[in-house]
Amino acid sequence: MNKNIFFLSHDVFEKEDEEQKSMFNPHEAEIALNLAKYLTKQDYSQNQITILATCYRQQFYLRKLQKKSFENLNKIRISVVGNYLDEKDDIIILSLVGSNKESNIDFLSTVNSYVNRVCSGLSHAKHGLYMIGNIECLKSQSELWNRIYTTLNDMKKIGNQLDLVCQVHDTVTQVTNAIDFAAAIDGGCMQKCYAILNCGHLCQRICHFDDRDHLQYKCNETCDRYICSEKHQCPRKCFEECEKCIIKIEKTLPCGHTATLPCFVDSLDYKCWVMVEEVLPDCGHLIQQRCQYRQLSANFSAFCSNLFAINTSCTVTVCNKQCNIPLPCGHQCTRQCHVNDDPEHKKYVCKEKCEKKNKGCKGDHQCRRLCSEDCLKCEVVIKAALPCGHEARIECGADIQKHICTVEVKQVFPKCQHTITKPCHKVQEYVDLSESFDDSKNQVHDTVTQVTNTSDFAAVTDGVCMQKCYAILKCGHLCQRICHFDDRDHLQYKCNETCDRYICSEKHQCPRKCFEECEKCIIKIEKTLPCGHTATLPCFVDSLDYKCWVMVEEVLPDCGHLIQQRCQYRQLCANFSAFCSNLFAINTSCTVTFCNKQCNIPLPCGHQCTRQCHASDDPEHKKYVCKEKCEKKNKGCKGDHRCHRLCSEDCLKCEVVIKAALPCGHEARIECGADIQKHICTVEVKQVFPKCQHTITKPCHKVQEYVDLSESIDDSKNQVNDTNSSNKYQ
Fold it and tell me: What are the DSSP calls for 72-91, one per residue?
């Protein structure tokens, strides 16, 4: 504002409060509060501003409007002039009311009251007084206001428009009502601010007087900082913190392969997933494995070479082929290739099904135990002929000669014809007794089927009778067919009884049908692993081949980190230890287990190492390249413009354009890192010669020698028609 005293006149009439029979003017109240809001944007605090009304009804309306629409102005004092006689404030805004058709001002009914209120309102302001009222109405009722009007009019401090001057752009906003304040909503004007921010962008706010240093402003332009060594621009907003560069680029890995990775991922930390072929030197198998495992083997080689000072190639890469070497039993080894662990199979336990007959078997009953287990005596019950001629159901592996025949036989005494019945083993002298049973042996069941018509043949479908066969099969079960004359040896018969063979060393019975091939035992049992942990596994799984998944803690000797890893990896390291000990004949423990912790060692630059723990690879960080954001200022920066490059890169000269004072006194927009002393000022300046009063216009940098021209030039050099002088100034 260009005036510290001003009377804003208007012709908007007041309104009447029907209940209290008093007048108030909403137009003046809205202007007063909007003017107070504008002044708070000009570095005035609310405690420095007071709004005065000349009547109580106007005071009440001002406070009501303040609570409803101007809640952020709750610290501005609103009072009536009569209650503010002995107080002062920096800014006074006076609402006079008294605007009506009759020019009636009842609240100034007496001369003393009238004079006191006017003088009080005009004397309370220290820095600024702004009055709002109808001057025509006031003049018509008071000689005092006539004199005030004359004085203000002579000083040009009265009118129906209040000029709000933007301190940034020098533009003027004319206010006649409350709506006009919208053109200076932030205390300036409606032009864009366009101030140069620390980031180099321009402020996009409507002209504002608050926060001129833009410390609270959030720049919403797209960030143009480089966030990686590939000079990829940050995709976020300028005010947001730059994130790691996730643009995917093709990188060459240490192994020579390429991979498409996010830009921030270090190729040294990336594990190569390319499948490569490799012939293992120990077993000669050609395997396919991921390149990262081949690199792991290379790291082991380097470790062993450093540990034992021997130039050797480590062959601890685990072969994933099956061994398949023929065993003495005729089967093949089913373990994963183990050329460095029991290569001669002295400790190997064959888990294949035994192909021999049961011990002492007289038929073709195959052993159902594992190949590595001793065959048991054949316990299949068969029908065998005893030496006495009788048949008996005995175990196949039993000695027939030792079997006691318990068949009850009749002995007829020839002379008396008496008959006695005794067990066969007590009448061995009657060896030929079996001849009396030949006729019965020629038939199956000695049954007779009578046929009278064709339907009766159903009782002899299989050529014999309707009784069950019940012949003893090789498996020990009974034939369940109807009596049949074909296939009496039961070679084609499929026994449908539940299999009662043992299929594992734990004597679990086979759950399949008797005629079906027994499968591996899948009943889950708890087994103790070589590492000492237990696991619930299918019965056929060898605990030696199972990888333990129990998480264990281990302190790594190289870096001292406490890591959690699966027990199988610790066993792997133990196998490496055994390998190293065998290879070099030295009793040592292998410590090549990789730490999965982050290094976090402080670097000379102040940042921390972000690589995975690398105690055995560049522990002093001589090759490490810090990828953190640089925290220094730009090179040659005179402000606070931070370097946006990586910490490992050299800072560039500060290129942020700033407004700087040159040695000549002019201001210019130059790069922050530039040398002000070397900047050439191009401002056009006028040079007036004292004697001739001629004026020349030249760039500032060309008239430095004329600074004291008026004192040094003598009369002979200042003549208007002097040719030499004219040439000098051109």
Answer: GGTTSEEEEGGG-TT--EEE
pTM above 0.85, yes or no: no
**CATH at 167:** 3.40.50.300
Residues 6+ apart with CB under 8 A from 479: 468, 469, 470, 471, 472, 473, 490, 493
Backbone φ and ψ of 39, nearest 5°: -65, -30
pLDDT tens, position by position, 581-594 = 444 444 444 444 56
End position of a domain, from candidates 168, 185, 202: 185
300 and 318 Cβ atoms separated by less than 8 Å: no
Distance of CA 611 to the CA centre of its chain: 18
What distance in Å separates the CA atoms of residue 231 and residue 450, rounded to the nearest whole number?
Answer: 107
Give a yes or no: residue 99 inside a domain. yes
Q: What is the pLDDT of residue 213?
A: 87
Q: Which long-range contacts (CB under 8 A, 24 or more apart) does 56-59 make?
A: 56/22, 56/80, 57/17, 57/20, 57/22, 57/23, 57/24, 58/23, 58/24, 58/25, 58/28, 58/29, 58/95, 58/97
Cα–Cα dist 472/394, whole Å: 11
Query: In the predicted model, is pLDDT for residue 51 greater than 90?
Result: yes
* Contact (CB, 8 A) for 247 and 261: no
461-518 confidence digits (pLDDT tens): 554 567 788 888 888 888 988 888 788 888 888 899 888 888 888 888 888 899 888 8
Q: How far apart are CA 100 and CA 467, in angstroms?
A: 132
Angle at 581 between CA 578 and CA 583, to 5 degrees: 105
Q: Which of 70, 98, 92, 69 is nearest to 79 (CA)?
A: 92
Give me the number of domains the chain comprises: 2
> Is 362's pLDDT higher than 80?
yes
**What are the helix and strand counts (H, E) for the chain?**
10, 28
First-to-last C-alpha distance (Å) of the chain: 45
pLDDT in tens, 378-398: 888 888 888 888 888 888 888
Contact call for residues 629 and 616 (beta carbons, < 8 A): no
Q: Which residue, of 140, 163, 185, is where some domain finishes?
A: 185
What span, in angstroms and rounded, lies between the C-alpha atoms of 193 and 188? 9
656 occurs within a structural domain:
no
Out of 173-182, 208-217, 234-243, 277-286, which region has the weakest mean confidence (pLDDT)? Answer: 277-286
Residue 333 lies inside a defined structural domain of this protein: no
Q: Is residue 134 part of a domain?
A: yes
Structural domain for 707, as ranges: 684-729
Burial group, residue 355, by CB count within 10 angstroms (0-12, 13-18, 19+) = exposed
| Under 8 Å between Cβ of 258 and 250 | yes
Other beta carbons within 10 Å of 555:
9
